Amino acid sequence: MIPQIDIGALGPMLPVAVGAILLPLAEVLMARKRTFLSRPFTQERRGTFLAVASLLCLVIALIISVNGLLGPSRVFNSGNPMIVMDGVAHFLNIVVLLGASLTVLGSVKYLADIHSNHGEYYALLMSSVLGMMFLTSASNLMMLFLALELMSIPLYVLAGFRRSSLRSNESALKYFLIGSFASGILLYGMAILYGMTGSISLAEIGKRFDPESAPHLLGAALVVVGLGFKISSVPFHQWAPDVYEGAPTSVTGFMATTVKVAAFGALMRVLAVALEPAAELLYGALWVMAVLSMTLGNVMAIIQQNIKRMLAYSSIAHVGYLLVGVIVGTLDGYAAVLFYLLVYTFMTIGAFTVVAILAKGGEDRDRVEDLAGLSQSRPLMAVVMTLCMFALAGIPPTAGFMGKFHLFRAAIERGIEIGDTSLFWLAIIGVLNSAISLAYYLRVPLVMYFRDAPPTSDPDVPGFFERVVLLTCLAAVVLLGIVPDDIFNVLSQTAASAQHLLLLQSP
Amino acid sequence: MIEAWEYQVVAGLLFMIGTLGVLVRRNVIVIVMCIELMLNAANLSLIAFSRQWGNHDGQIFVFMVIVVAAVEVAVGLAIILRLVSNRDTVNIEDTSLLKW
Fold first, then answer.
1. Is A125 exposed, middle or buried (0-12, 13-18, 19+ CB in 10 A)?
2. ipTM (interface pTM)
3. N or C: which end of chain A has fewer CB within 10 A?
């Protein structure tokens, strides 16, 4: 039997793939002494051109994804599907593409500032985005592994993009070692799952999985550990602060947001489809991971002096909040995770962009004191940073509050429904942790508004592209806080349709 | 005649050696070799399971993993090369600028 292949289902990936292939070529052509315009491009103009070109690809992909979200779900190949483009995949792709677009816009001036304006940056970024898009839609272990590697390997290079910087080197090395180690664990888990069930399709595994048998559970545990490394949840988090601090700031923003979006997509699909029979046992383990992530992330963030490091610990804490939605496992829970991922992307990229703008003369300025007096010198940046911090802390009426509200509401409703007190505790610990997080989030606006700048400080002016990023994040953080109900209802339906499709998919 | 489970024992042993190596060794090159060992343990396991089940999914998977492993080594060695030229060491304990 020849399987029917629907190339059109891959629509959103095509522009990104074309971009990833053509951008290095364009860079080489423009770097020649004699170009078709008979004069060479300056490095700065080359960077701007490549950024605009990759932005174009991302926006085309974004438009196709939005169309896909509104249309019916599609499957790449019938029978034993490898890629399922359902509502969840389309929505997560949209979030990934938004995050990537903002990163591209925020990188142009930053790369010049740190003297690392190399053209391959954008090609690597696009390859990574391609991997993320496949990761959100993979419904087969092989596709999942390939997509995960396609996402991670360019990121190892990007983390070490400042070739002569020792910190960037170290960040890349740590990311590479831990990332490949995690891939090895994940792969062995996949091999065991395949061996026990005889299939690499998630839906088939879900049907044949036997939660009573030890090898089955070992495979499931290894897969969850591998993905746990990728989302950097405690106790698999130690790499995150080091990698985030050492990597170039624009790359850190990208790693902290889009990677988590894609990895959470994969985690939800694996847990809800393939490992569904083992739900009770695994959710016990995830419960511990969620509580530890929230608590340790927030407590460690309090003592940080470096903003990037502080945001790294804060991202670990946010993984804990997001895991709450995964553990709840209802449609509302999944919808809350999707919504929170969208909100989290905007607030985190906004904060990292402000830090990126401050970089000057080949050096990052990423200590909390470097922000002193920013409200007088650069009011827009101070406002964006303040709002992002409020949103990350979950203060109403920002988007962050609504995101957390939906997550914890889903947990409590489910807890009442099945009479499970552990879900109540999860919500309570989450709320307490939000209170702890105020301690370090509020320090940032405090320094910006109530401490005078040192006389030598002269923060950089945001360029046009960076202004666009700041205003977009500002608008998103405010608007998603005011009108979240409509979006949330749409997401609920999306999750419902996706679940429907996945359950029907199994041949 | 080698039984199917014997392959799994070898694969499991290889995987454990690889994991232990990553955790205890301090030379970056050796750590990368141990990671490769982990991937190849999974490969062996996949091939043996594929034979056992009589379907080709596992074998195709192995080809993909071989490619990924090659790419990982290429990128990893490039990163290690930068480390050596910047710091003149392959000992993981010397890379400790970033902590806490």
1. buried
2. 0.95
3. N
